[in-house]
Design brief:
Layout (H helix, E strand, L loop, with lengths): L1 H8 L1 H48 L2 H17 L7 H15 L2 E8 L14 E11 L1 H12 L5 E9 L16 E11 L2
Antiparallel strand pairs: 1-2, 2-4, 3-4
Helix pairs in contact: 4-5
């Protein structure tokens, strides 16, 4: 009875107090789920951004695939064949003729067994020991031709000096004869 009398006496205050308690309980309940909702919203925004980027990038995929196919074909044309020994050696003789050096030694070195640290995983290599003689300008031309040649190659070791046949006190001018020894890897088909 007392509660009914209190309600009749202070109806607005009691209604406001009850509403405050209900809203406070709802706020406490919502505040716990608001953090979860914010986290889910940011996760969904990241996913939407990624999907939007993927859709944008997917428009260029056919052109990129054509370009990759073209590059792969270009690489395949520049690979050496491990079974074609004559053509592989002829490549070095052509470089000799084009650059003006004298090829004093050319022989294939057995490739070491593949280890855990393989540099070229998809391709194998043919290793050649190459010695050339000529003046500095011709040797640079040989290196330039090797670098930009028809075959994919890498120089793994290089030394340059005077040939063993040179005499002490010889003229060491601009046209002095030098000997360059290289270890060259030709990238070849697997």
């Amino acid at each position: 009875m007392k509660s009914q009398q209190l309600f009749k006496k202070y109806p607005i205050a009691i209604s406001a107090g009850a509403a405050f308690i209900i809203f406070a309980a709802l706020a406490i309940f919502r505040s716990g789920s608001a953090g979860d909702l914010r986290a889910e919203l940011s996760s969904r925004e990241v996913d939407a951004s990624r999907l939007s980027e993927n859709l944008h990038n997917a428009q260029r995929l056919p052109a990129q695939l054509d370009e990759m196919d073209s590059l792969t074909k270009h690489i395949a044309e520049r690979l050496s064949s491990p079974n074609d020994v004559a053509n592989n050696q002829q490549y070095f003789y052509k470089l000799e003729a084009d650059s003006g050096v004298k090829l004093s030694d050319l022989h294939q070195i057995a490739a070491p067994a593949k280890s855990a640290k393989v540099k070229y995983t998809q391709y194998s290599v043919l290793i050649y020991a190459v010695s050339v003689q000529g003046d500095f300008a011709h040797q640079l031309a040989f290196l330039r031709n090797l670098e930009s040649g028809a075959r994919l190659s890498a120089i793994t070791n290089a030394a340059i000096g005077f040939p063993p046949s040179s005499k002490a006190g010889e003229d060491l001018g601009p046209g002095a004869m030098l000997q360059m020894t290289l270890t060259v890897q030709l990238l070849c088909t697997p």
